[in-house]
C-alpha cells in the first residue's frame, strides 16, 4: 500500500490528505446515518502518509470487522494482569504505550463488536504485518525516528465503543498523526493534543460529545482535518476555529448557535460544512477572502438571516454553495454570475425575492451549473435564459411568486411579503468579472440590471408581483 515506506514529508502528507478529502467532499458530510468514514483501512502502514486510506460512505465500520461478541466475552482478558517485560516489545515506544491502551480498555463500557478482546499481548503493531491483534491501531515510522515503528494512527471508525473520556488515552501517543472515531459513543472532554507534533486529523463524528465547543481543539495549529459533526455540541463556535489551517471543517448536525464570526473569511478550508445547526445572523461578507481555497460550503438548515452577500460571487472556485433552509432575504446578486465553477447552488427555502438573474442561469450554458434550487422563496420572475433551465429541470422555482408558473404561492402570501419593508436589501448591479456573451445593455436592461433605481437610492425595493420594472425587479 502507498502508506507503508513512503518517506514522510509535510508536502506528501498534505497532498495525500487532499486525495482523501476530494473523495470525501462536503455533501458526504450530510449523509444521515451513513457517515463518510476515513478508515485507515490499509492493513499495513500508519498515518504519516494517509493516501493509503479510502473513505467509506457507510456506517458499517471497517470492512471485515469482527462479528459482534457478547460484552462479557469482550471484557475477558482485559489486560489487567502484570505488564509484560520491556524486552517483549519491539521497542520502548511500544512498551510505553501498552499501559495506556490497557488503562483505556478498562474504562470501556460497551464494545458491541468485541474489538477490545484483540488488545492483548505485546504486538501493538500487529496490523503492520497484516495481523489481527490490536484492532484499530496502525503503526508507522515517525519522521524523527525513522527506524522505530510506533503507533501513528488510531482508527476506531464504526466500533461503537463507549467510554466516558478520551483524556489520558489519545494524548498519550506522542507520535500520533490521526485519531478517527466515527460512530462510537465517546463523550467527555477532548484531551489536549497540542504537544503531539505530527497530529493532523481529528474525527470525532457521530459520538456523544456535548457542551460547548472543545477548547482544546482551537490551538491545534497543524490540523488539516477536523470533523465534529453529529454530536451534541452547543453554543458559539470560537472565531479562531475558522483560522485553523484545516482543509476540511465539518461542524454540521450539532446545536451550535450565535453568528458565524467574521473570522470565517480566514478559513483556508476547501470543504466547510456548518449545516444543521442553529446559527443566526448573516453569512459573513468576509467570505470573499476564501476565494483562493473554498470549494464546497454548506450553510443549509440554520437560522441565518440578512441579505445574501454580493461577496459570495467573488469566491471563484466554489463548486457547491448551499444555503437552503434559512431566512436569508434579498435579490440574488449579479456577482453570482461569476461563479464559473459552480455545479450545485441551493438557495431553496429562504426569503429571496426579485428576478432570478440571467447571468446566473447562463452558468448552465457557459459554466458548470447542474442544479439550481430556488424553490420556496418569493422570486417574482425569471430571466429569459432561466426559462430553458426550468424546462430542463436544472432550475427549480416551485413555490415562489412567479405569475403564470405552476405550483406557486398564493397571491395573497406574495403580496404580503412584498409589502413588508423589512426585507429590503442593497442591490449592487456590478458584475465583477468578464462574461463573454452576456450583454447587460441588450434586451431589457431592467432585466439585466434589476434594481437600477436602487443603485441610486442605495436600497433595492422589492416590487409586488407584476409590479413596475426597476426597483428590485
Ligand atoms: C453499506 O454496507 C452494507 C452492509 O455491509 C451494504 O449492503 C451496502 O451496500 C453498503 N453501502 C455502501 C454505500 O457502500
Ligand atoms: C500485507 O498485505 C499487503 C496487501 O495484502 C501486502 O502487500 C503486504 O506485503 C503484506 N505484508 C506482510 C508483512 O505480510
Ligand atoms: C450510543 O449509545 C446509544 C445508547 O446506548 C445508542 O442508542 C447509540 O446507537 C450508540 N451510538 C453509536 C454510534 O454506537
Ligand atoms: C452520553 O453522554 C452522557 C453525558 O453527556 C452520558 O450520561 C451517557 O451515559 C452517554 N451515553 C453513552 C451511551 O455513553
Ligand atoms: C483573510 O485571510 C487571511 C488568512 O488567509 C487572514 O489573515 C485575514 O485576516 C483574512 N481577512 C479577512 C477580512 O477575513
Ligand atoms: C438539486 O439540489 C437539491 C437541493 O440541494 C436537491 O434536493 C435535489 O435532489 C438536487 N437534484 C438533483 C437532480 O440532483
TrEMBL record:
Q: Which InterPro entries match?
A: Leu-rich_rpt, LRR_dom_sf, LRR_extensin-like_regulator
* Keywords associated with the record: Repeat, Secreted, Signal
Protein name, entry field: Leucine-rich repeat extensin-like protein 4
The record's region (Disordered) falls at: 452-473
Which Gene3D superfamilies does the entry mention?
Answer: Ribonuclease Inhibitor (3.80.10.10)
Task: Answer yes or no on keyword Transmembrane helix.
Answer: no
**Where does it mainly reside?**
secreted
Localization recorded for this chain is: Secreted
User: Which regions are flagged for Low complexity bias?
Assistant: 452-466
Signal peptide location in the record? 1-31
Q: What is the lineage of its organism?
A: Eukaryota, Viridiplantae, Streptophyta, Embryophyta, Tracheophyta
One GO cellular component term noted in the UniProt record for this chain: extracellular region
Q: Which Pfam families match?
A: LRR_1 (PF00560)
Presence of keyword Amino-acid biosynthesis: no
Amino acid at each position: 500500500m502507498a502508506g507503508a515506506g513512503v518517506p514522510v514529508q509535510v508536502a506528501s502528507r498534505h497532498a495525500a490528505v487532499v486525495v482523501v478529502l476530494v473523495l470525501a467532499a462536503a455533501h458526504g458530510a450530510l449523509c444521515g446515518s451513513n457517515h463518510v468514514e476515513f478508515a485507515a483501512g490499509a492493513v499495513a502502514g500508519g498515518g504519516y502518509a494517509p493516501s493509503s486510506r479510502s473513505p467509506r460512505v457507510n456506517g458499517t465500520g471497517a470492512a471485515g470487522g469482527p462479528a459482534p461478541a457478547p460484552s462479557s466475552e469482550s471484557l475477558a482478558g482485559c489486560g489487567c494482569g502484570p505488564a509484560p517485560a520491556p524486552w517483549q516489545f519491539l521497542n520502548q515506544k511500544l512498551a510505553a504505550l501498552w499501559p495506556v491502551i490497557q488503562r483505556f480498555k478498562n474504562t470501556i463500557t460497551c464494545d458491541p463488536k468485541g474489538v477490545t478482546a484483540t488488545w492483548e499481548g505485546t504486538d501493538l503493531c500487529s496490523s503492520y504485518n497484516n495481523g489481527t491483534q490490536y484492532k484499530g491501531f496502525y503503526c508507522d515510522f515517525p519522521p524523527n525516528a525513522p527506524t522505530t515503528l510506533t503507533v501513528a494512527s488510531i482508527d476506531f471508525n464504526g466500533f461503537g465503543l463507549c467510554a466516558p473520556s478520551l483524556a489520558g488515552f489519545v494524548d498519550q501517543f506522542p507520535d500520533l498523526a490521526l485519531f478517527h472515531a466515527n460512530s462510537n459513543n465517546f463523550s467527555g472532554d477532548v484531551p489536549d493534543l497540542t504537544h503531539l507534533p505530527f497530529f493532523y486529523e481529528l474525527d470525532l463524528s457521530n459520538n456523544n460529545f456535548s457542551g460547548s465547543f472543545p477548547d482544546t481543539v482551537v490551538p491545534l495549529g497543524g490540523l488539516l482535518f477536523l470533523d465534529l459533526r453529529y454530536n451534541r455540541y452547543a453554543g458559539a463556535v470560537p472565531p479562531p476555529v475558522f483560522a485553523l489551517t484545516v482543509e476540511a471543517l465539518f461542524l454540521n448536525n450539532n446545536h451550535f448557535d450565535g453568528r458565524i464570526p467574521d473570522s470565517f473569511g480566514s478559513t483556508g478550508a476547501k470543504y466547510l460544512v456548518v449545516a444543521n445547526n442553529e446559527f443566526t445572523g448573516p453569512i459573513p461578507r468576509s467570505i470573499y477572502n476564501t476565494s483562493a481555497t473554498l470549494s464546497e460550503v454548506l450553510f443549509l438548515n440554520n437560522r441565518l438571516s440578512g441579505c445574501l452577500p454580493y461577496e459570495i460571487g467573488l469566491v471563484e472556485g466554489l463548486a457547491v454553495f448551499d444555503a437552503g433552509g434559512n431566512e436569508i432575504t434579498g435579490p440574488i446578486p449579479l456577482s453570482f454570475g461569476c461563479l464559473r465553477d459552480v455545479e450545485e447552488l441551493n438557495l431553496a427555502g429562504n426569503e429571496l425575492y426579485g428576478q432570478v438573474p440571467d447571468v446566473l442561469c447562463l452558468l448552465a450554458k457557459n459554466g458548470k451549473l447542474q442544479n439550481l434550487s430556488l424553490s420556496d422563496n418569493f422570486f417574482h420572475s425569471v430571466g429569459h435564459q432561466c426559462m430553458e433551465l426550468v424546462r430542463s429541470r436544472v432550475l427549480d422555482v416551485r413555490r415562489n411568486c412567479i405569475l403564470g408558473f405552476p405550483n406557486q404561492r398564493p397571491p395573497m402570501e406574495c403580496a404580503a411579503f412584498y409589502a413588508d419593508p423589512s426585507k429590503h436589501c442593497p442591490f449592487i448591479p456590478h458584475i465583477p468579472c468578464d462574461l463573454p456573451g452576456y450583454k447587460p445593455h441588450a434586451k431589457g436592461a431592467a432585466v439585466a440590471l434589476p434594481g437600477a433605481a436602487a443603485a441610486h437610492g442605495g436600497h433595492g425595493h422589492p416590487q409586488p408581483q407584476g409590479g413596475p420594472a426597476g426597483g428590485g425587479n
